[in-house]
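Task: complex structure prediction.
Instruction: return C-alpha cells for all chains below.
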Amino acid sequence: MEIKRNGSQLSSKGPAEWFTGTVRVDPLFNAPAPARVGGALVTFEPGARTAWHTHPLGQTLIVTVGSGLVQRNCGPIEEIRPGDVIWFAPTRSIGMAPRLQPQ
Amino acid sequence: MEIKRNGSQLSSKGPAEWFTGTVRVDPLFNAPAPARVGGALVTFEPGARTAWHTHPLGQTLIVTVGSGLVQRNCGPIEEIRPGDVIWFAPTRSIGMAPRLQPQ
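Output:
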C-alpha cells in the first residue's frame, strides 16, 4: 500500500508544445505494469487549450470544476460541465479548452 | 467521443457481500478493450466499510471528501484525507472505512 499525501507531488506548468495558455498539471497516479493507466488533475485557466493530440489507449476526462469545450477530429464541439465523463477512443486527434466566460 | 452527462448514470447501493453499512456507488467509466480500467465514485456513510477483497490489477483511490482508514493484509492502518492518492498493488487483500467521527 503506497500513499501519496496531498501536497507531496509537485505541480508543473503544462508544456508549451502540448498546451496554449496557462495550464497546471497536478500528478495523481501512474499504476505500474501490468496496469497501463495514469491520471492527473489538469487545471485550465480561461482561454487555455490543448494542442491537437492523440491517446494510443484512449483517454477519460472527469470534469470536476468549471466548464469547457471538447472536440474530436472534425466532430461537433461539445460543452462539458462538472460531473460529465468523456471517453475518447484510442488514437484519434482530440482537443479541449475551458469556456472563455465562466457560467 | 462519448459524453456521459452528470446524472445520466444511475447510482446504486454497495452490495452487502462487498460492503458493511451504507455505501453509494456512482459509476464513472469503464474503458473498452484494449484498456482494462474502470472508475467509480464510492461514498461511504460513517461506519461503512468494505469487506476484505482483492484487485487482480491493483486499485488506486483518490480521496475527494471526508477522511477514512485503509489497510492492506496485516499492514498498518493508515488514515487518508482529501487529496491523498493510495495505490494497492495487485491481488493482496485490502479493506477501507471512513472515520467514525468527522474531523
